[in-house]
Design goal:
Blueprint: E1 2-7, E2 10-15, H1 22-30, E3 48-51, E4 54-57, E5 70-72, H2 74-77, H3 81-92, H4 102-115, H5 121-127, H6 138-157
Parallel strand pairs: 1-5
Antiparallel strand pairs: 1-2, 3-4, 3-5
Helix pairs in contact: 3-6
The structure holds FE2/S2 (inorganic) cluster (FES) (2 copies).
C-alpha cells in the first residue's frame, strides 16, 4: 500500500504494508531515529510522536492509520521556538532527562501547553503520564512546566504572567 501524510510539515509518501508500525516507518523509510524503540507495546513512551495533535506511541500506530494524518517527531519539533522554551525550562529546574525519555517528555510538554496554557498540577501529571520515567518526581515536573510557561511568556510578550 502507498500512504501519504504530513511529516514534520512536509507532504510525504511511503510504500509499506498495512500492519507495519509508524516507529519502523520513521526509522527505516525516513531515517528519523528520535523516536526510540523501547518496549514496542505502548508502555514506555520512548517512541512518542505528536499524531494529529496528541502525543501517541509510534509503536502502536499501524501504517493504515497514518493516511492523511499529521505527524510531528522530535526532529521536526526541535527546530521550533516552542521547543527551545521547553529545553530551557527543563534545564533551569534540572529536570531529569536521558536519551531514552527526553523526546517523549519534550513532546508531552508541548501537547500539554497547547491544550492547557495554564495547566493545573493534575493536568501536568496527566500530561506526562505517557512517558514512563521513574527518575523524575511530580513536583519537578510541575516546576518545569511553570518555568516553561514563564519563559514562553517572556519570549512572546516580554514579561511573565
Ligand atoms: S516503544 Fe513505544 S511505548 Fe515503548
Ligand atoms: S530520565 Fe530518562 S527514563 Fe528517567
Amino acid at each position: 500500500m502507498t500512504v501519504s501524510f504530513i511529516l514534520n510539515g512536509e507532504d510525504v509518501l511511503v510504500r509499506t504494508e498495512p500492519g507495519v508500525r509508524l516507529i519502523h516507518i520513521l526509522r527505516e523509510n525516513f531515517g528519523l531515529f528520535g523516536a526510540k524503540s523501547g518496549c514496542l507495546n505502548g508502555q514506555c513512551g520512548a517512541c512518542s510522536v505528536i499524531f494529529n495533535g496528541s502525543v501517541t506511541p509510534a509503536c502502536l500506530i499501524p501504517a493504515f492509520k497514518i493516511r492523511g494524518s499529521e505527524i510531528i517527531t522530535i526532529e521536526g519539533f526541535l527546530l521550533t521556538d516552542e521547543c527551545e522554551d521547553i529545553l530551557k525550562g527543563f534545564k533551569e529546574v534540572h529536570l531529569g532527562n536521558c536519551g531514552y525519555c527526553e523526546a517523549g517528555k519534550i513532546l508531552c510538554a508541548e501537547a500539554l501547553l497547547e491544550r492547557f496554557p495554564n495547566p493545573s498540577r493534575e493536568e501536568i501529571i496527566m500530561g506526562f503520564s505517557g512517558v514512563n520515567c521513574r527518575c523524575t518526581n511530580y513536583d519537578r515536573l510541575v516546576e518545569a512546566v511553570n518555568t516553561i510557561i514563564g519563559i514562553r511568556q517572556r519570549r512572546l510578550y516580554g514579561r511573565s504572567a
